[in-house]
Amino acid sequence: KQEVTQIPAALSVPEGENLVLNCSFTDSAIYNLQWFRQDPGKGLTSLLLIQSSQREQTSGRLNASLDKSSGRSTLYIAASQPGDSATYLCAVPEYSGGGADGLTFGKGTHLIIQP
Amino acid sequence: DVKVTQSSRYLVKRTGEKVFLECVQDMDHENMFWYRQDPGLGLRLIYFSYDVKMKEKGDIPEGYSVSREKKERFSLILESASTNQTSMYLCASSDRGPWETQYFGPGTRLLVL
């Protein structure tokens, strides 16, 4: 079973800075990696999904990269805004041959953007 | 847009009560999942289902059961609620295959007294 680790656990930066969130996983045989955002007390919103054959995926100010061989992914946020304040989670799917066996999550990075 | 809805945002129950958490998705997805989220432990998979009437145990199934009578609806059942089941419960759905995006509901925050 995968182990997923996110560093740092918390991050506070001034508005306007570019920042990088890190995610690592133990088994490189993944189908994809998904990044989520969670606002306090709310559900998860999918931000980006990178398939195993891709190296990068972009959506607006967000760019996610994937290096399967080293078991790492990064989420780059450009020109951060106070509205980006949230917890960011990465996850990889487990698969035993049936359908999808659920996601294994990291514990998240709690991000605060100071106005 | 995919929509996953959960029947309650907040629930307060007594120890020993039978509790039903309902989840409905509107995208005809085959796969549905129940997770719980706890501070310091993150999200953990309780049960999942590939199809109607099918269920599979996740990482922490003890004390829970599930029901999937219709494709769009997946229910999580706490047979006899205990205080250690106080948590945030999140439902998700996805199309067939582990390569598909999982879509999450808003969550149900359950307090067991």
Which key features would you list for this structure?
heterodimer, A: mainly beta, B: mainly beta, seven-stranded mixed beta sheet, 53% strand
What does this entry look like structurally?
Chain A is mainly β. Chain A has strands at residues 4-7, 10-14, 19-25, 32-38, 44-51, 56-59, 62-67, 72-77, 86-93, 103-105, 109-114. Chain A is built from no helices and eleven strands. In chain A, strands 2, 4, 5, 9, 10 and 11 form a six-stranded mixed sheet that branches. Chain A has a five-stranded antiparallel sheet with strand order 1-3-8-7-6, with no helix packed on it. Chain A starts with a strand and ends with a strand. In chain B, 0% of the residues lie in helices and 53% in strands. Classes of the chains: A mainly beta (115), B mainly beta (113). Chains A and B meet through strand 4, strand 5, strand 9 and strand 10 of A and strand 4, strand 5, strand 9 and strand 10 of B.
In short:
The complex is a heterodimer of chains A (115) and B (113). Chain A is 0% helix and 56% strand.
By DSSP (H or I, 4+ residues per run), the number of helices of chain A equals 0
Rounded radius of gyration of chain A (Å): 14 Å
Strand tally of chain B is: 11
Biggest beta-sheet profile of chain B: 7 strands, mixed
Return the structural class of chain A: mainly beta
Topology, pairings included?
The complex is a heterodimer of chains A (115) and B (113).
Chain A: E1 4-7, E2 10-14, E3 19-25, E4 32-38, E5 44-51, E6 56-59, E7 62-67, E8 72-77, E9 86-93, E10 103-105, E11 109-114
Parallel strand pairs in A: 2-11
Antiparallel strand pairs in A: 1-3, 3-8, 4-5, 4-9, 6-7, 7-8, 9-10, 9-11
Chain B: E1 4-6, E2 10-13, E3 19-25, E4 31-38, E5 42-49, E6 56-57, E7 64-70, E8 73-78, E9 87-94, E10 103-104, E11 108-112
Parallel strand pairs in B: 2-11
Antiparallel strand pairs in B: 1-3, 3-8, 4-5, 4-9, 5-6, 7-8, 9-10, 9-11
